[in-house]
């Protein structure tokens, strides 16, 4: 079953001067897949993520997440859908600095009006999974970048979203922390079957995924599937990036 079905998605910005940021792009992602999206600056990756999450309206085409045709949702319905069915991870973590790490992780559960005891228990389980339970009661400024990003991932998955979307999740991290964060994404994928889409410029980050979709000029330019060997996959990704340029 597809968790994401994109059919001829097109996004044109502007009135007088038109920019075709996403151009008749079609893509299917199966449940349990771990997909990277790569492409040169300006190729339409962020626009594409914002279309998938229903933040931007499509100019034409259709996007389904599971059964839901998100292109037809009204603004309020789209916001609810995002909150309940999607998880987001951003480059700069987007943690709330006035809350502790644990409280940040619990945030999505507050919308579900669960009792505080069970929210805390679930948040601890999630923090444990991501190896950050030791900093559960710390403030956001007391933890490392890698720990902050793992807290952001815990917050993104605690409500069991259908799809996890990450925009440059390793962009602010040193290589060791980036490696650790990507190992967490991969473990969530293999052990919990979390379906994820990760936009990245970094071939090392992309090499953790099962498939890489390369975008150029708002269209799918090429796709690579990983076999067993991550190092070989990394080399293959580098090869395509050389052709693509600008990445
Ligand atoms: N709000 C906007 N209004 C007009 N044009 C826009 C807008 N946002 C993006 N664009 C244009 O759409 C195209 C795709 O931009 P987008 O940000 O989606 O690319 P990207 O691949 O995410 O780039 P980067 O890797 O630099 O983040 C670019 O030409 C960009 O200038």
Automatic annotation (TrEMBL):
InterPro entries: AAA+_ATPase, ABC_transporter-like_ATP-bd, ABC_transporter-like_CS, ABC_transpr_LolD-like, MacB-like_ATP-bd, P-loop_NTPase. GO terms for molecular function: ATP binding; ATP hydrolysis activity; transmembrane transporter activity. Keywords: ATP-binding, Nucleotide-binding, Transport. The keyword NADP does not apply. Gene3D superfamilies: P-loop containing nucleotide triphosphate hydrolases. Residues 4-242 form the ABC transporter domain. GO terms for cellular component: membrane protein complex; plasma membrane. It comes from the Bacteria. The keyword Calcium does not apply. PANTHER family: ABC TRANSPORTER ATP-BINDING PROTEIN YXDL, IMPORT ATP-BINDING PROTEIN. This is ABC transporter ATP-binding protein.
